[in-house]
Amino acid sequence: MFSGSYQLGDVDFLLKKLDMRPISNVIxxxxxxxxxxxxxxxxxxxxxxxxxxxxxxxYEAVERNAKKMAMDLVCLAxxxxxxxxxxxxxxxxxxxxxxxxxxxxxxxxxxxxxDAPHYSVSIIRDRGIDTNAxxxxxxxxxxxSIAFIDGWTGKGAIACELRRSIPEYWKKTSFDVxxxxxxxxxxxxxxxxxxxxxxxxxxxxxxxxxxxxxxxxSILNDLVGPNDFHGCIYHHELSAHDISQWFVDRLxxxxxxxxxxxxxxxxxxxxxxxxxxxxxxxxxxxxCRFNVTDINYIKPGIGEATRSLLRRTPRALLLRDPExxxxxxxxxxxxxxxxxxxxxxxLPLLAISIIRKLRND
Length: 361
Hints:
Layout: E1 12-13, E2 16-17, H1 26-34, H2 52-83, E3 89-93, H3 97-112, E4 118-121, E5 123-124, E6 128-129, H4 131-140, E7 146-153, H5 157-172, E8 181-186, E9 193-196, E10 231-232, H6 244-261, H7 272-289, E11 298-300, H8 301-311, E12 314-319, H9 328-337, E13 340-343, E14 351-355
Parallel strand pairs: 1-4, 2-10, 3-4, 3-7, 7-8, 8-9, 12-13
Antiparallel strand pairs: 5-6, 11-14, 12-14
Helix pairs in contact: 2-3, 2-6, 3-6, 8-9
C-alpha cells in the first residue's frame, strides 16, 4: 500500500509498483492491442508533461467547472451515506476514480463527521477486478460497507465488468460485496448513483498521473504474481509537475463555499433507464454512420474522448459545438494529432471520439 503523492490517510493504493519500460510509439502500442498481440492492460504508453497551452486549458476548466464538480461531489456523498447507512468504505477504481475518492473522503470527514477509509484498486475490462485487493479490504472492513467509486461512465463498460466479476468473487468467498458503481457523472445510465448525468468537463479528466497522485493506469502482465495486487507505474519523474494535492485543495474550497451558502441540496430523481436507452441508441447510430464494427472503438463523453486522444490512435472527433469552452482542449488535441473533427448539433453529448482501426499489413 502507498498513498502516491496524496496525503497519508487520504487513499491507500492497493497496487504493486512496477519497473517496466513504457511504449513511446502510440501506433506501435495500438497495433499490439488491435491485433491481439497484447491485451491493453499488459502494456502502457509513455506519459509526458503536457504543454503550457494545454495546462492553461486545464486551469481554465477548473475555474469554470469547480463549483459544478463540488456540488456533484456533495450530492454523491449524500447518496453514498443513504446507500451505506451501516458504515462506508470507499473503493475507487484506479485511476479516474481516485481523485473523486480522495475528495469524497475529505468531504465526508469535514462536513458529515463520517470517517470513511478510502482504497484505490484496479479493475480491467475483460480481466475483472483485483480480487487480491478485495481480499485485503474485506479482511479489514465490513464487505457490506464497500462502495465502488469512479469518475464517470461512458458506455458502461466498467459497470458491466463489476456486474460480471463481483458475482464471480461471491462464489469464491463469503464476502457480501455489492456490485454497484457510484460515479460523479453517469452518461450511460448504468450507475447506482451519481452526482450528475450531464456531459461536462470534469477537470481531472484532462490530465493523467499529475492530477491522480502520480500513479499510472493499472497494469496486469507477467510482472504481477498470483498473490500480488495489480500493477502500476509511479511517475516520480513528474513530481515537479504534480498538482494532485493542489486540485484536492481547490475543490475542497468550493465545497466549503457550498456549505456556507446552501446546505439544502435536493437529490433529484434520475431516469437511468431512459439515459441508458438514449446512450445505446446514440452509440448504435454512430457505429452505423461511421461503419464501426467494434463497440470498444467508440468513446462517448468528454472524459473518454480526452483519454482516447491522449493515449490512442483516434480516427475522428465528434463535437456538438466546437466553440464550447468545455471542448477546447479536445479541439487542441485534434489539431495536434491531425484528427478529423465532425460537428453534429444533434449529438446528445458534448463529445465522442472514434478509434482508428489499423490495417494489418
